[in-house]
Write a structure and sequence with these properties.
By secondary structure, the protein is an alpha/beta fold. It has helices at residues 44-47, 56-66, 80-93, 104-123, 146-151, 183-197, 222-235, 256-260, 287-291, 312-327, 329-333, 335-346, 377-387, 409-426, and strands spanning 23-27, 30-33, 38-41, 97-101, 133-137, 169-171, 202-207, 211-212, 218-219, 238-242, 266-269, 281-285, 352-358, 361-366, 390-391, 398-401. Helices cover 37% and strands 16% of the residues. Bound molecules: pyridoxal-5'-phosphate.
């Protein structure tokens, strides 16, 4: 296998990266390579594969839908798969309105534009002080489109585009791990920062509830999020939950907001939405937000739409995925107890720092080299695990597992076994 002459891979530096592996097929938690090797996909292919690869019930639902209605423009038209999905997600999230887009970044951009324009529609010409500030958290990652990038922490990923990014106020994210004794002090500091920031008129505050993914699987305690919500509500700003990674059972509850007992005004969803079969994003909005756009004034319209809005195949996949999820809640609710003993055992290795777990995710930091995405130790670990049939993709020195729900006990134990075997080779 070599680099294809006509392809350009995401987030990949061709000058230094190993060539991509050619995949022939996938089933459950396993990828089968063209050369016959099998790999356990321990990160659900960038956190999208919710139940398992090629899940038959979802594949069948897509095939049925493709023979009936594959796509139709969603301005002027509606269709049953979209309506059924809206009804179900509205009941599950407590947010009445569903707006479709194409991926996680667009779901976030839509939430941001809705929040921004909701205030403009409401306050234009009233003499009220304009709410121009947006607040996000240190370490935030909300996607790679320009608006989503602006919301995220400035990093290696955003440096080249700095002049294009609008200003966002970032406040502390007091992330924690097992046996963390300093968390309360860090939480107080972060809440002080937030309170201070909220003194400036603020349109919206966005957060990844309970866990920041891309910046290194950084957990916060539910009580911190409730304290954040209390302050945001008191300021009148809108609260946006980016549940692109955390949605659909990933944190042990259907949505992380529910596990944290917060109720955002807007929620971005994608990744597991279609069970990981098709690219689709949705932004859930409260009825109050929706009503703020209904007006005789043309400029109050939400002028946003994508060609593939509400693609019926994506909707059919999402409905089939929800059926599977709701048929067996213990499968996601009890996942944490499967990780726990295995991670505890692995933590006896001196290189394992800050072990932590939440729902289907378990993570730790490697105590080698800098705490950075550029720390090469992650790439070495990735290579060594690959040689033993487990696909992981550490974020620099942060190693995590986030497997599909269908992973068997034996497969999960195999992942930890391979890690235990590989860690001493890194020292
Ligand atoms: C929390 C969060 N928001 C947004 C995104 C962007 O989603 P997408 O890659 O589908 O654009 C991601 C992707 O990892 C994410 O983890």
């Amino acid at each position: 296998m070599s680099w294809h002459p006509n392809l350009w891979h995401p987030t990949t530096q061709v000058a230094t990266a190993p060539e991509p592996l050619l995949v022939r097929s996938a089933r459950g938690c396993e990828l089968e390579l063209a050369d016959g090797r099998r790999l356990i996909d321990a990160i659900s292919s960038w956190w999208v594969t919710l139940h398992g690869h090629a899940e038959p019930a979802i594949a069948a639902a897509i095939a049925r839908q493709a023979l009936q209605l594959e796509q139709v423009i969603f301005a002027n038209f509606s269709h049953q798969p979209a309506e059924l999905l809206a009804t179900r997600l509205s009941a599950l999230t407590g947010l009445e309105r569903l707006f479709f887009s194409d991926n996680g970044s667009t779901a976030v951009e839509v939430a941001l534009k809705m929040a921004w324009q909701w205030w403009r529609n409401r306050e234009a010409g009233t003499g009220a002080t304009e709410r121009r500030q947006l607040i996000a958290f240190d370490g935030a990652y909300h996607g790679d489109t320009v608006g989503a990038m602006a919301l995220g922490e400035r990093s290696l990923f955003t440096t080249a585009y700095e002049p294009l990014l609008f200003e966002v106020t970032h406040v502390g994210w007091p992330h924690t791990h097992w046996h963390d004794e300093g968390v309360e002090a860090r939480e107080r500091l972060a809440l002080d920062q937030l309170e201070q920031a909220l003194e400036t008129p603020t349109a919206a505050v966005i957060l990844e509830p309970l866990i920041q993914g891309a910046s290194g699987m950084r957990l916060v305690r539910p009580a911190f999020l409730r304290a954040v919500q209390e302050r945001v509500r008191a300021s009148g700003a809108l609260l946006i939950a980016d549940e692109v990674m955390t949605g659909f059972g990933r944190t042990g509850a259907l949505f992380a907001s529910q596990r944290a007992a917060i109720q955002p005004d807007l929620m971005a969803l994608s990744k597991g939405l279609t069970g990981g079969f098709l690219p689709m994003g949705v932004t859930m909005a409260s009825e109050r937000i929706y009503r703020g756009f209904i007006s005789e004034t043309p400029g109050h319209t939400f002028f946003h739409g994508h060609s593939f809005t509400a693609n019926p195949l994506g909707c059919a996949a999402a409905l089939a995925s929800l059926d599977l999820l709701q048929a067996d809640p213990p499968r996601y609710q009890d996942f944490e107890s499967r990780h726990r003993p295995l991670l505890e055992q692995l933590s006896s290795n001196a290189l394992v720092r800050r072990p932590r777990s939440l729902g289907t995710m378990a993570a730790f930091d490697l105590d080698i080299g800098p705490e950075s995405y550029l720390n090469p130790v992650g790439k070495r670990l990735q290579q060594l695990c690959l040689e033993q049939g487990v696909y992981l993709r550490p974020l620099g020195n942060v190693v995590y597992l986030l497997p599909p729900l269908s992973i068997s006990d034996a497969q999960l134990e195999r992942c930890y076994g391979v890690l235990a075997d590989v860690l001493p080779k890194l020292a």
